Give the backbone structure.
Amino acid sequence: MSKLFIWVATMRPPTLFLSISGILVGSSLSHKSDHFSWVVFILIIMTAICLQILANFSNDYGDYVKGIDNQNRKGPKRALQKGLLTLKEIKVANRILMILIGFFSLSFLFLSFGIQYPSYAILIGLLLILAIIAALRYTSGKYAYGYRGFGDLSVFLFFGGLSVLGTQFILSHELSTTGFLWAVIIGGCCVLVLNINNIRDIENDRLQNKKTLAVILGLKGALWYHYLVTLIIVVTIIYLEMVYLNHGNIFQIIADRFLDMLFILHAIALYHANKQNKMNHMLKYMSLLTFLIGLRTFLISFLIDF
């Protein structure tokens, strides 16, 4: 196995699509703005990808150091666990990623806000610093919040709130009620992905005293929590369609009904997947579904202008 393949696998490519879903939605809400820029859009995408890789590397690092990645873990074996990468290599990679995040983010902040709106640039910059800290401290350090049940809240705020609303604000210099509703949808979807991961590893996490929300709620509670978040997402999608019905089109309506069906099928399949030890398949399914929502919104806004 080549070193390049090992690094790519450690980046967890499916999660990279997940990380840009909110950006696709945020950009779709901003595409008619006079401030919209494709260069800024691409720089935001690059920042998000680097942040996601940083989070993935840091999670691997933290779980390995704390002994969570052991033979009892049901997920795929990770590079550190298999001895394919060293802790020093991960540390160096994280430093490089932080440099890239700094370069990309400073570039889009300057191009978007320039010297006219320094307060906007400072605000977004501070939020990005918080995102970096969140990526580094999810499983790493003495006060790793992922071990105390706060992972779901962090994912909702950063993958939903910052990703959707941050992108909308950077590209249009304004926010909207629609943006907040889409942040709930995308943030909720990313929470579902994390919850599936935590349900899959619930027994090993409990043994290792990793208190994810799934461990705190228990298996039955985690499943009901999953169904509740799914219901909130579906209701929000339906609400958006009803409120903006006169501004929609047949393609949007069909796409929304298709998404509703996929969510319902996902909820039904989750219980059986847990019984059949097929949570890894559900993880990929939910990640793809989240990306499809972002892609759906992006394509409807940019290719089917209504």
Notes: The chain has a mean pLDDT of 86. The two ends are 49 Å apart (CA to CA). The chain has twelve helices and no strands.
